[in-house]
Amino acid sequence: MHCALYDAGRCRSCQWITAPISEQLAAKTADLHTLLAERPVTEWCAPVCGPEQGFRNKAKMVVSGSVEKPLLGMLHRDGTPEDLCDCPLYPASFAPIFAALKPFIARAGLTPYNVARKRGELKYILLTQSQQDGGMMLRFVLRSEAKLGQLRAALPGLLTQLPQLKVITANIQPVHMAIMEGETEIFLTEQQALAERFNGVPLWIRPQSFFQTNPVVASQLYATARDWVRQLPVNHMWDLFCGVGGFGLHCATPEMTLTGIEIAPEAIACAKQSAHELGLQNLHFQALDSTQFATAQGGVPELVLVNPPRRGIGKALCDYLSQMAPEYIIYSSCNAQTMAKDIGELPGYRIERVQLFDMFPHTAHYEVLTLLVRQS
User: Binding positions for S-adenosyl-L-methionine (predicted)?
Assistant: First the structure.
């Protein structure tokens, strides 16, 4: 993939961009083999990859510059701003949004936040696109509600210009730290969730609910988990760290009892909406801490699926899973190092199957799906 920003030395986020995808996959596969070298693996599945560019469904842009000439992109370590609107990881559909937002920021008087001076209002622009119909969610991350009236007044013109904007919010993040969003979310449109669909499964994206950034590969990840689960004699399943329910909604059948647990209420609201649309009566999604939920339960499901953040599931949950001993564990990880550490805390299980998903091309990061089977 060619990137003028990289060639000019203006952005180094894609550190592996000069290597062919085949070499990137080989290096990631070798890393995964090294991390799991101490445990035998019955089956290594072929790695899955997607498009090299234009694959991201979201942009997280730092707003800098001036209100008359805003920049959308990032700040270098020395505080120098860099405009990333031409980043080739974004689909072509993002370009008209970025182009319209710059004059809109000026019209609405949304002064970009100056980190050094701790002054200004607009900190970030967060944009998410649905692959289902091209609809988009736009979030303005503001320091306070001071400019909310001006933002509301200017929005009708933006919506006329960009009808693909289905959900627009103002997020209030008052803390002077590199935190992407605050707790307060103010909806500026009647619609509050973006409709998405993977493999025929309806999914919903709301503000402050995690959703994968590479929909092509994520769709294959969910479909693979579904296929693995369908091959197992499973009638009762837990989906821990379930997010908007992508794994559970794919894996569930009308006969299966499934409980999905996620600490973010917004994500659980999405999962419940999808389950209702699918007409699945035995799906139960709750906004709880996954570890606290699991360790407080009495019954043992045949399968526990975990999809934790980068820190992994941790020793407390590993110890409990070892104690409760479900027949199967499926571990989806965005950090193979912590996954390998967690698997080391599950000595009663053998690694039946492993598959790498190249969710983050041109970087060292990848996603991995692992099936663990209890040893008799």
Answer: 212, 241, 262, 307
